[in-house]
Request: fold
Amino acid sequence: MAQTSAIISELKRQLRAHGLTYQDVANALSLSEASVKRLFSEKQFSLKRLDQVCTLMGMEISDLVRKLAPEPKMEQLSLEQEQELVSDVRLLLVAVCAMNRWQFREIHQVYDVSETELIGYLAKLDRMGVLELLPGNRFKLLVSHDFAWQPGGPIQKFFEAEVQQDFLKCRFNHPGELRLFVSGMLSTQSNEAVQQKLKRLALEFRHCHEEDLSLPLEHRFGVSLLMAMRPWEIDAFNSVRRPEAAKDYPPYSR
Reply:
C-alpha cells in the first residue's frame, strides 16, 4: 500500500508538472471529474488506467516508477555560477521563475522574453545543473528544497545593492503588506531565543511556498519576507556615546 501511495503521489506531481488537471484526466479516461478525484483519493487505479494517464503525459509507467528513486539535488551554486546569473538580469529572472515552478508558457506570457531567448536561458540553466530541459520546452527543476544562495556571494550582494532599498521603499499600508519594528533591550539569551523563533518563521514560510506550488500561477503572488535583528544603535545616538561607554556584544555561549 505504501508503494501504491508513492506512485499515486508521483502521478499527481507529474500531472502538475505537465500542466494537466483532473478534468484533463477525466476526458482521457472518459470519466467525470468527480470520478477521477475519487480514484486519486481512494488510490484505486488499474494498470490500464494508470497507463492511460501516463500516455496522456507522454510517459510510460516505467518512467513514473523510475521517478520514485531519489535523485541528487543541487543545494548551492558555485560563486562563478552565481556571478553568471547576476551578470544577466534576464537569466536571473528566468532562474527565479523556474525555481518558483513557472512553466515556459507562463514566463513567456508574463515577461518580454522571446521564445528563442527563453530557450537559450533555459539551456544555460540546464548546463549549470539548475534544471533539466525536456522536449516540448518543458523542464524539470534540479535544486533541492534546502537550496540556498552563497553567503556573501554575488546573489546576496545583488540583493543588498539592487533589491533591499527598493523593497523598503514602501509605506506597507496596502493589502498583503506589513511592517513591524520593535526596539528594546535584550539579554544575549533573549536575543538568541528570538532569533530561533525567526528561523522557525522562515521555515514556515518555505513550507507554505512548497505547498502552494501546486496552485495555478494566477493564484500565487511573489511575496518577500525580510527579517532582521542585530544589536544596534542609530548613528545620531552612537555619535555622542562616550568612548568609555562603548559596549561590545558578547559572543553566544554554546
Remarks:
- Residues 170-238 form one domain.
- The two ends are 45 Å apart (CA to CA).
- DSSP finds twelve helices and two strands in the chain.
- Strands lie at 131-134, 138-141.
